Structures are given as C-alpha cells and as structure tokens.
Amino acid sequence: MDPTTLSVIDADGALCAQIPTTPGVSMPPRKKDAQPEEAVESGRFYELRDQAAGARRGPYKLTQDIVFPEMTRRLLKDYAAAPTEEEKAKILFGGYVDAVEALYDDRPIEEWRAFLSDVRAHYFGQGAAELPGGSQGS
C-alpha cells in the first residue's frame, strides 16, 4: 500500500477506496469496536440556554387556530424597529393579524384591551405597558 494514501476497508476486509493524504500527517489508529464520540455541549452559552429554559414563555395560543410565534431575539429587534403599532402587531401576531382583527372587531373594547395587555405580559413580562417606553393600549 502507498504511504501517501489512506485505504478504506469494509467489514469483510475488501478495499473500498484509497484517499490521498498529506505526507507527514497521520491519524491515530481507530479501535474496531470504537463508537463515534457524542458531541458534548459545554460553555456558558449552553449553561445560560438551559438556565433560561424554565423562564421561556413559548408561543402565545389565542385559539386552537391562532398561535403567535415564540419571541426570539430577531423578533424583538424587528419589533423595536417597527415604526408603527400596525407593524408591531404584524411582528407579534405572525401571519394572524387579519384573523385577530376579525376575532375582535365585533367584541367589546374591554376584551381587546385585555387581550393586548395579556399579549404584552406574555412576551415582555407583567407591567410592560407601564414601563417608560412601554406600549400603551391601542
């Protein structure tokens, strides 16, 4: 066998392929019964992710058919940059803006306000509307 090629042998001992290698660079021999190592997630990113998992609010389920997306950093950035309340609603409600409008159009305004307050509390925490810069009811 050529020392500048890696020979790939199948389970029956037959030569499957020869792969060119870089001279002077070698790989350690692999045990026949060795299993591939599982990737281990380590570092603060993973620790913080796991720690925050208990605080995640998840998607907002208004009805069986209307479920708003879970808040992500990207959605939050888009929400903060949105110039109007209508644009903010499109971001929070995903593709359900028209469905939400239709659901509440003929309902009492108090229900609409309660819904808006609940959505804000879900995404931003209780009392979000009362904070400086918080959104006020529409």
Q: Using only CA atoms, what is the Rg?
A: 28 Å
Main beta-sheet annotation? 2 strands, antiparallel
Q: What structural category do the secondary elements indicate?
A: alpha+beta
- Number of helix segments? 5
The unreliable regions are 131-138
How would you write the strand order of the largest sheet? 1-2
Distance between the termini: 77 Å
Percent of sequence in beta strands = 5-15%
Q: How many β strands by DSSP?
A: 4
- What shape does the CA trace take? elongated
Q: Give the helix proportion (percent range).
A: 25-40%
- Overall pLDDT score: 80
Q: What's the helix-strand series?
A: EEHEEHHHH
Model description:
This protein is an alpha+beta fold and 138 residues long. It has a domain at 58-129. 37% of the residues lie in helices and 11% in strands. It contains five helices and four strands; from the N terminus they run ββαββαααα. Strands 1-2 form a two-stranded antiparallel sheet. It has a two-stranded antiparallel sheet with strand order 3-4. A hairpin with a 5-residue loop joins strand 3 and strand 4. Helix 2 packs antiparallel against helix 3 (85-93). The longest helix has 16 residues, at 109-124. It starts with a strand and ends in a 14-residue tail after the last helix.
